[in-house]
Design brief:
Shape: globular
Number of strands: 21
Helix content: 25-40%
Strand content: 25-35%
CATH class of the largest domain: Alpha Beta
Bound molecules: S-adenosylmethionine
Length: 467
């Protein structure tokens, strides 16, 4: 007989945490991470697991409903897990994200939280993504009721999103509110075509099946690109691509990929151009960006412009300035900033991203940007000063893990008068700022909400070299 799981009663939900969890506090002061509650609720929970001394639980009963609760707008909310904060009103989401940045600056950077400016909220809180990646699976995620019912469920083919924590299961999606509706139409059409023609859906455990992934990208100027990823070679591919491209004639660019590997990543796979244009063009403020089927690109174009504008305001570039742009991706920040300064050098480890950056320089007639491929840790050095000029401003936008300590030491040696630090993880941003404070002062910091309804937090910080 299994041990009964422990329950905790009268837990006050006090804050949000990473990955859509909320933070609860018991009457005895014990802290627990909870699924299914929002700040302001009072709940009874059951403890599901412990990890690194932290307890994780789920709601058994809501004793008092939070005033900040709101009705989720998506029918898939309970199952999908993609937009975890749909049940929390948007103003409260934004306030809690701002508080998380304040707390990181206070607790981790050991600085004054009042340097954190009000969060820049998103005007569009749904339909804001320009890219969605759907998965096909022959193992549809079953609801609790389906599992409990006596019926045998034969039809398990599904296309939608992977269920968090169940890598082989896919939640069937009829309507997603993250990308304009054409995305739903294309995905649903392909599902019905596949069911009608009996095309196989991908079996992740055994690595076989024809339909594997579907990536749909669009721009704010209503250009669309579709890439179908197949799990095996087949004569049916031509029929599928012909059917889709005939049905959706306003899609500008069609590609497919045959990925027979065990994992879903496509950056090492060839994207085959099927028809239409080779890519689509997005406008980021005054910059045009060509997006191909494998390009990295910020997924919320409107807020990306607001983020870059904030970074530029903080950078306060002068015409004669030299700018370094670390972790440049496809060079969008470098290109965006290039007209405000004399020269820019960008560093990025992915060759294809640098190819896009160079192509986008040409597309925009920009000639004062240079892009280098390599790990920032190994590429950036004090010698950059003699080669590219001493930096007047350095913008850094590392991945979630933040910057390697070697990079921080090089930044301390380079002693750029200003550093603008963009981050998608306030904890590592604050950790790095604390290290940079050996020579820098944190001037201000601004959270920017790039991903409403989710727990993701982006923030921009300005540091000045101490006199
Ligand atoms: C948060 S993205 C920023 C992209 C870009 N600044 C933008 O706004 O689109 C981080 C980028 O850093 C790159 N990257 C990650 N680790 C790196 C490293 N050690 N050296 C160089 N680039 C790295 C990733 O490939 C990615 O393009």
């Amino acid at each position: 007989m299994g041990r009964r799981k422990k329950t905790l009663e009268q837990v006050e939900v006090i804050d949000i945490a990473d990955k859509g969890h909320s933070i609860g506090r018991t009457p005895e002061g014990e802290i627990i991470l909870i699924d299914g509650a929002v700040p302001g609720d009072n709940v009874d929970t059951i403890i599901l697991r412990k990890k690194k001394g932290l307890k994780f639980g789920k709601v058994l009963k809501i004793n008092t409903y939070s005033d900040y609760r709101t009705n989720p707008f998506c029918d898939h909310f309970d199952q999908c897990g993609g937009c975890k904060w749909q049940n929390l009103n948007y103003s409260k989401q934004a306030e809690l994200k701002e508080n998380a940045v304040r707390a990181a600056m206070r607790r981790i950077a050991d600085d004054d939280e009042n340097k954190v400016e009000p969060i820049l909220k998103a005007e569009q809180t749904s339909y804001y993504r320009n890219k969605l990646e759907y998965a096909f699976s022959n193992k549809r995620w079953l609801t609790e009721e389906e599992i409990q019912s006596d019926k045998t469920i034969e039809a398990r083919n599904a296309v939608g999103f992977h269920r968090a924590g169940a890598f082989d299961k896919v939640v069937e999606i009829e309507k997603c509110h993250l990308q304009e509706n054409l995305s739903n139409e294309i995905r649903n059409h392909l599902r019905y075509l596949a069911l009608e023609k009996n095309y196989s859906f991908y079996d992740i455990r055994n690595n076989h099946g024809l339909l594997r992934n579907l990536t749909i990208r669009n721009t704010t100027t209503n250009q669309w690109m579709v890439t179908v990823v197949f799990g095996e070679k087949s004569e049916d591919i031509e029929d599928i691509m012909a059917n889709l491209s005939a049905r959706f004639q306003n899609v500008k660019s069609w590609h497919y990929i045959i990925n027979e590997k065990q994992n879903d990543s496509i950056h090492d796979q060839e994207a085959l151009h099927y028809s239409g244009e080779r890519g689509i063009i997005e406008n980021l403020g005054h910059i045009q960006c060509h997006i191909g089927p494998k390009s990295f690109f910020q997924t919320n174009s409107t807020q990306a412009v607001n983020l870059y504008q904030t970074a530029l305001e903080y950078a306060d570039l002068k015409k004669e300035d030299v700018l370094y742009d670390l972790y440049t991706g496809t060079g969008t920040i470098a290109l965006f900033a290039s007209k405000s300064c004399m020269s820019v050098v960008g560093i990025e480890q992915i060759q294809e991203a640098i190819d896009d950056a160079n192509n986008n320089s040409i597309l925009n007639n920009i000639s004062n940007c240079q892009f280098l491929v390599g790990d920032v840790k190994d590429t950036l050095s004090i010698n950059f000063k003699s080669r590219y000029g001493s930096p007047d401003v350095l913008i850094t936008d590392p991945p979630r893990a933040g910057m390697h300590t070697d990079v921080i030491n090089t930044l301390l040696d380079l002693a750029s008068p200003k550093i603008v630090y963009i981050s998608c993880n306030p904890s590592t941003q604050a950790r790095d700022i604390k290290l940079l404070k050996e020579k820098y002062e944190l001037v201000k910091c601004k959270p920017v909400d790039m991903f409403p309804q989710t727990s993701h937090i982006e923030s921009v910080a300005l540091l000045h070299l101490k006199p």
